[in-house]
Amino acid sequence: MKRKEFTELALGLTLGGLLSPLLSVGKQTENFYDKSVLSADGLPNMLPANLKQMVKNTLKAEFKTVNTDWDGTIQIEGLLRFANRGYKEGLDYSKKWFNFHVEHDSKLTDEQYYKQYEGPKARILRDGPLTFVIYSANLGVAFPVHELYKQTRDLKAKQVCFDVADAILHYAARDRFGMLAHDDYNYMDFAIPDTAYWATRANAIAASLCTDIAVANMYWKQSIYQLNQGIEYFLDVKKGIVRTGLFKGEPAKTYWCRSQGWLIWAISGLLRYLPKTHPEFKRAAAAMKVIADGTVKYQSKNGGLHVLVDDPSSPEEVTGIAMVVASVKEGMRNGWLPPIYNDMCNKGWEFIKKSVDEKGVVHNTYTGWAVTAEEKKVNLMDEKFRGFVPGIIMLAADEMTR
User: Fold this and answer.
1) Beta strands in 252-364 (DSSP E)
2) pTM score, whole prediction
3) What does the pLDDT look like over 307-340, one tens digit per residue?
4) Most buried residue, 16, 64, 167, 383, by most Cβ within 10 Å?
């Protein structure tokens, strides 16, 4: 978006011309509960046995050991997606997880808190119900907590959604392009699409919960701005795929599988709450379509995406396609995308199902990240368990079994 266009949009928001539909947006609950489509275990009949086992494996971990970084929060969100459809065990577990961290984390020293997750150290905020760190992946705690609020109306959960958005607005660093920094220290070396996801979705959630016009204006403005910057700097429109990131301010030379997922998830994270009449809706949906078309073009013969999407010599990988499938299926279901991607989604779903063994363990996973992908270290497959892996698969499985 050009500066002039964004200034005009911001002015319109300030004047309240666009805020009426924004403040009345969407449903805060989205209940799919239907006993006729559930098995005795409370999970969808359409969910294969190996993926049911994967979900149940999540419950085997003591909830106290599941952190509030992305490794933990995406698993909780996955459980809550199924809880919204009747999976009571998932809701019970998630409530225990949230209440534990509310009570426990504020009592930790900084060093004790840092030991809970693998990412970089950053400032720790202790003002609200939940103590959290402003390393970007930790800001994703707002996502399962929002799901929890919708199902329980726990006001502490609602407040955490505002606290995370406020942290992005007022405390978190920015890179020189105005995008949310990865953490307190790495905002000059690189910028990657996952930060667009954390910032866009967290602020859209806060805006959707807010009844104060002036404050909602602030959240919407930030959500839209962060997404537009991500689209501008990461999406290669000509190739139809997403760059791994920016490194030293220059576009990446690679197109990493999960970068496709990060940016399309950022788009979904806005479109869930933005009314179709909003002037930014078509732009975001158009970017989603570019990524969907690119996925059709580059999808591997078995249904995955290659670790480096445009390099068929790199391994076929499951998490990237799962992220894209989850958003594209949601996009078709909600009318954000035309219903022309079912073949791509079904092919991806088959690859996902074949990538989970009978014990519920996920394979074909790239366990490196953006920096290692840009270094073309493509064989970092299934090297160690990371909680985000089953979490991603759960979100795709939720969409594919509706």
Assistant:
1) 305-306, 316-317
2) 0.92
3) 999 999 999 999 999 999 999 999 999 999 999 9
4) 167
